[in-house]
Amino acid sequence: MTLSVSVKHTFEGFTLDADFKAPAGVTALFGSSGSGKSTLVNAMAGLLRPDHGRVEVGDRLLCDTDQGLCLPPHKRRVGYVFQEARLFPHLTVQQNLRYGRWFAGIRGSDTEERRLVDMLGIGGLLTRRPGALSGGEKQRVAIGRALLSHPLILLMDEPLAALDEARKAEILPYLERLRDETAIPILYVSHSVAEVARLATTVVLLDKGKVLKTGPTEEVMSDPALAPAIGLREAGSVLSAKIVKHHDDGLTELASAGGRLFLPRIGGNPGDRVRVRIHANDVVLSLDPPGRISALNLLPGTVTSIRAGSGPGAMVQMQAGDDQILARVTKRSIAALGLEPGTGCYAIIKSVSVSRADIGAGDQSIAKSDTTT
Amino acid sequence: MDFLSPEEWTAVALSLRVSFWATLVALPLAIWVAYLLARRDFWGKQVLNGIVHLPLILPPVVTGYLLLLTFGRRAPVGEWLYETLGLIFAFRWTGAALAAGIMGFPLMVRAIRLALEAVDPKLEQAAGTLGASRPWVFVTITLPLILPGIIAGSILGFAKAMGEFGATITFVSNIPGQTQTLPSAIYAFLQVPGGEASALRLVAVSVTIAMTALILSEVLARRAAKRVAGA
């Protein structure tokens, strides 16, 4: 099911003019605060009536101002998970979960409810009221509530932004399961590169009310031209890989399109797919294969593009197998090594620089790592 | 009941009946007006707000006289109501209920409006995205959340109706068994020699009813507030 959105809206000196199409899977609407993400999502949900706009989910037209059509929120079948869970305080968790289901007019889908409750791990909370839940629990209930209303699409507006790191880490696996176990398309709004890198299949990069780029996560994340919009410190490529073996010394061996990776022990079994985010700041480039060096990961490849900013640094994109790797180095190093597109070089990545938060479960839609093992 | 004479008992029963109907009929209207004032922007909002609060500021006698001018048998509205619906307000218990309801109305609106303004519209938005149309959102989300305000408003309105004197006596006079409510009866007993004992007994009844209403509202409101807090 594809999603097609085109919205023009002006208010308080800010103009949103965004246009994108997204395939099934998780589409991340990514951008800094004030880039217009929430406005766009509210226009999709019908909470805001845009000056001009067209929103289509699958073959269902939700809004087309040219035709004078703009469905009210309750007729859109759009599930919305808000930043603050917005659970109904006077209802129990179970009543909250069933609220949308009741309006969707669906009876007898108890099996589905049980499956979702299990998946979200909220079985023990059903009789409680929202006031007695933690932030992470509230958000999981909100996700279940939205899904049980049988939406055509699920909108998630920074669902983790109000939570601390521990709570985020608690919920992210549930979101990965949601991506992998349900067929419903998800539009995930976020300004966190880590979340986007872990969850998204497609990224829509929004900047100052305009769409800079729409594309597969790996492609958008490893595009040196987009690094300034993503944030230089946050920029980094996303690799999909497969777990080969857990070694006795605590390292896990992964096979990626570019070569073998050794990372500190990660969860999962041999054969499982994972996606790994490699910060551009953590990558060292070398023309020759280094001899005696402590870094364990060495990926050979070719420089594909270089983008220098106004400062002393530059972003180098390198092709390693089918994967792109982004490295942030100084202009001085580029000159010293004579790097230019076509130069063969090695990317050196320290195992310990990849943290747990950079590794997530891989989704089925990325199958290319299969071909390399 | 031996504690009260039949005449006193009539006054108490009438007062309860008048206040009950005044509150019951005024309540939906008060919720609606409170919703308009809290949630909607429209031309003449301040005028509506002023009219609603007028009975609180005007001397009750003025309100009673205005009611007489509007709802009297020969008055325009009163005549129309009689001819179309057969409703008579002047010098009937229904008139006492009307006066009591109007005097208590601003108190009810204020309490409910405060509760409405405390409801997070974001919850109503969320209900909308879950498939609830506006009326359903109101019934399933807004109404339960403002329940403490509705209870408080009703009790206030009821208490005001029980105590209403000036507007009632001006509008519907002081006819035993028809329009002689508790306060009117107390006033009447104090006007005749030897009526103090009766007046005192009615005062005791008044105090009892008022206290019961207050305690009841406190308990109900606390219970409802606890539910709304979601704990």
Automatic annotation (TrEMBL), chain A:
Please list the GO terms describing molecular function. Answer: ATP binding
Q: Which UniProt keywords apply?
A: ATP-binding, Cell inner membrane, Cell membrane, Membrane, Molybdenum, Nucleotide-binding, Translocase, Transport
Domain of life of the organism in this record?
Answer: Bacteria
Where in the numbering of this chain does the Mop domain appear?
292-358
Transport among keywords: yes
Supply the Pfam families for this chain: ABC_tran, TOBE
Question: Which InterPro entries does the annotation name?
Answer: AAA+_ATPase, ABC_transporter-like_ATP-bd, ABC_transporter-like_CS, Mo/tungstate-bd_C_term_dom, ModC_ABC_ATP-bd, Molybdenum_import_ModC, Mop_domain, P-loop_NTPase
Q: Does the keyword ATP-binding apply?
A: yes
Which positions fall inside the ABC transporter domain? 2-233
Q: Where exactly are the transmembrane stretches of this chain?
A: none
Q: Write down the PANTHER family for this protein, in alphabetical order.
A: ABC TRANSPORTER I FAMILY MEMBER 10
Spell out the protein name for this chain.
Molybdenum ABC transporter ATP-binding protein
Protein species of origin: Thalassovita aquimarina
TrEMBL record, chain B:
Ranges annotated as spanning the membrane: 20-38, 50-71, 91-116, 136-159, 199-221
Q: What is its main location?
A: membrane
Keywords associated with the record: Cell inner membrane, Cell membrane, Membrane, Molybdenum, Transmembrane, Transmembrane helix, Transport
Question: Has UniProt tagged this entry with the keyword Transmembrane?
Answer: yes
**Entry's Gene3D superfamilies?**
MetI-like (1.10.3720.10)
| Ranges of residues in domain ABC transmembrane type-1 | 12-215
Check the record and name the InterPro entries matching this protein: MetI-like, MetI-like_sf, ModB_ABC
Topology within the bilayer: Multi-pass membrane protein
* Cell location: Cell inner membrane; Cell membrane
Matching entries from Pfam families are given as: BPD_transp_1
Which family is this sequence assigned to? Belongs to the binding-protein-dependent transport system permease family. CysTW subfamily.
Role played: Part of the binding-protein-dependent transport system for molybdenum; probably responsible for the translocation of the substrate across the membrane.
Name under which the protein is recorded? Molybdenum transport system permease
Annotated source species:
Thalassovita aquimarina
- Organism placement in taxonomy: Bacteria, Pseudomonadati, Pseudomonadota, Alphaproteobacteria, Rhodobacterales
